[in-house]
Amino acid sequence: MIELHKNEDILAVRRKTWFVFAATWAAALLLLLGPLFGAAILAAPKLEILRGALITPYVFLSGFFEWTVWLWLFAGMINYYYDVFIITNERIVHIEQKGMFNRTVAELNLSRLQDVTIEQRGLVETLLHFGTIRAQTAGELNVFTFEQVDRPEVVKEIIARAQRIALKGNRPWP
């Protein structure tokens, strides 16, 4: 994943909440069932005359459609799995997968961390306990954002504890 510095320990590794990928999975499942409904329509007795002419293009197009949906689901799984938020005793690393072959890696030194906020908007985020974490460093305008993280209040506490230790300079981590 990342190369650790000397005496650096990983405290937490977080991904987006399962709910994000579950929505993609449910949409893919509905799309994969689509060709079955088309086959049921093709099997209607009134279309018997056209069935012979339509069956070959239908099989080809539905197979291509199914293949495309599986690729879309695979790309969604890659994006979900490789979006990672790593907290060490020295820094925060955010690896964001933006496509199959596009990744952004950003890191923030805990000793420069100035503000960490969490945001939970709406009923779904509140009930399922996920939200957005924003961290800002001293002297920089960039805000470090990790969206849809599971249990953001726990992650904020881990970051706050790691920052206190990083500022003191001692290592209580095992």
From TrEMBL:
Keywords, sorted A to Z: Membrane, Transmembrane, Transmembrane helix
Transmembrane stretches, start-end: 20-44, 64-82
Matching InterPro entries: YdbS-like_PH
Pfam families named in the record: bPH_2
Domain YdbS-like PH: 84-154
UniProt name for this protein: YdbS-like PH domain-containing protein
Organism: Candidatus Terrybacteria bacterium RIFCSPHIGHO2_01_FULL_48_17
Lineage, highest ranks first: Bacteria, Candidatus Terryibacteriota
